[in-house]
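Apologies for my clumsy wording, but can you show me some protein sequence, whichever is easiest, together with the matching structure tokens, please?
=====
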Amino acid sequence: MDLVAKRPLEQTLALTLSWVLGGLLAVGRLLDAVSNATNLLTPSRAILASVIVLLPWISVELLLRFRGTPWRIGTSMVRVQSLGLKTRCFLAGAIVLFWIPSLLGYAYPANSTRILATAQAQLSIEAARQVTRGPVWGWDTLDSDEVVAAVALRATTTLNEGRVVVAFWRLANEYETNWHIARRRVGQNYLLARLEGAPLSSATASTLLAGGIECEKTYAGDIAIVVLAVPTQIVEEKQEEWLNDEGGWGFEALPTGGAILASQVITFPTTPIR
């Protein structure tokens, strides 16, 4: 006699469905975690996060190995001398997640010069020159200057409504290499320096005034600048992040994600005025 009762078909189907739904939810959480990590974790942040996880992990492992700690499981007391496989896998998975954005960026470089190279024939900077340079916010007591540049643009394909041209800049020296969004000042606030409304074409050159370019008041050298054509919706989504400027540190890689066209990078000179 078979004493093991078989599951009814309805129960088997219900369990199978629950397992499938559970798997889909788990995959959804994983993809959401990867997406969030991709948006937040730069290589430097991945290093910091990995160190924050690894140092306590190694410390606890050494402490448990040499001293152990009492632990109650049910009605019994045991001495724990390792974190266990599940905890180690959880911590290792967290570290892997920290580095997924960097690995994806290496394999699929959205923020790379590949986009610039393929788009040079479609959107180009004819010239860039300094228009003004003076103390930031007009305060002579500050040690930083703001440069405003005029950037002449031309496109071989017409950019109609729904596309916005923005600019990113960086100082062309060896130690300040991060990218910053070009801005325009309205009252006591900075907004994006953007070119929109009128179509941009190859017939005539258009000019974008790019401000918010900051440097030390003694800085003498070149400033690198590049322009991107970005869908309006993406600009609206990203402008707060761009203006926040990673807390003033700028972006390690040029934020070309979502850009449909990008120009070549050119430089123009600036010299101290005070």
Observations:
- The first strand starts at residue 69 and ends at 73.
- The longest helix spans residues 9-40.
